[in-house]
Amino acid sequence: MSLTVYAPASMGNVGVGYDLLGAALAPIDGSLLGDKVSIAASTSGVQLKVEGHWADKLPPEPKENIVYQCALFFMEQLNKQDGVALTLEKNLPVGSGLGSSASSVVAALYALNEYFDRPYDKQALLRLMGEFEGKISGSVHYDNVAPCYLGGMQLMLDTQAKVCDSIPSFENWYWVVAYPGISLSTSKMRELLPDHYDKSVAIDFGRNLSAFVHASYQQDAELAISVLKDVMAEPYRASAIPGYELARDALDKLGMLSTGISGSGPTLFSVTDSLETAQAAQAWLDSNYVEQGLGFSHICKLDALGTRTID
Q: Which of 48, 133, 163, 280 allows an S-S link to 62, with CB 3.0 to 4.6 Å?
């Protein structure tokens, strides 16, 4: 038996929902923006091969790769003596704000769970994904892992019974994402944030997030856009991302409805309900925000499928 799994890129926070909201991305041109993991039988132990555009940014030693560590854990937990050979196709840049580590972890654990006849149920597997991704990002947060695995827009619940649940999305929205070509450490970007927030900021955060969720269920796009703002992280991170503030202002002038930082950055996202405006925004970003040969941009919808096996 052999299989290949695809795990889509994701936006953590989605601006308004710091650590509590995440969304999976699907480029409208049909390309797959995310990592792939293939698994097959091997003679013994765990073997890992890494390929793909961003493979050279990962540790050369297989045992230092999170995909290898996921496989080793699975084999030990199931007391399996037979071997597995994995191939990671690294298609997302490290430290991009597109859920790169989550994509690798989710693809690996999903592939292993399928290969070994699903010993973990959906919630247990999701918690395991969060635990492994936390080893890379520095702490356990599900706002990339959950949408990457389950697809769509996911709201973090983190109750004993349920990690997250999906909320309705706006089908006519286009999400333009642009990765400029530099990497930023998630843990270092978290260090930019204050240890304590003023009460008024906490109230604004709660009001904006609850209003966004309410608007999503009501399909009130105007309300959703009006509260799609980041009061928790962007004020402290914006100046640390070269060119971000300039890009945000330019996108606003082009008619984009809202712009924010994807995860910890440096990727930005910008929302519109007009394909023509999205294309104009992408063209501006390609000329002014993305470093040619290093970065990229995509016009996306939300990926409703999440992680899945592919041919």
A: 48
Three-state SS for 274-307 is CHHHHHHHHHHHHHHCCCCCCCEEEEEEECCCCC
Segment among 14-23, 56-65, 297-306 with least mean pLDDT: 56-65
Q: Are 107 and 5 in contact (CB under 8 A)?
A: yes
Is the bond into 168 cis (omega within 30 degrees of 0)?
no
169 annotated among ligand-binding-site residues: no
The range of the structural domain enclosing residue 84 comes to: 2-168+305-310
According to the annotation, is 96 in a ligand binding site?
A: yes
DSSP line for 116-168: TT--S-HHHHHHHHHHHHHHHHSS---TTHHHHHH-SEEEE---SS-SEEEE-
100 is in an annotated binding site: yes
Residues 189-203: what's their mean pLDDT?
Answer: 94
Do 26 and 137 share a structural domain? Answer: yes
Residue 33, token pair as written in the block: 């923006």
37 annotated ligand binder: no
Give the pTM.
0.94
Q: Is 258 annotated as a binding residue?
A: no
- Residue 182 shares a structural domain with residue 201: yes
The reply to whether 103 sits in an annotated binding site is yes
For residues 141 and 127, give the distance between their C-alpha atoms in angstroms, rounded to a whole number. 10
The reply, when asked if residue 102 is annotated as ligand binding, is yes
Q: Are 27 and 298 in contact (CB under 8 A)?
A: yes
Band of pLDDT at residue 246, cut at 50, 70 and 90: very high
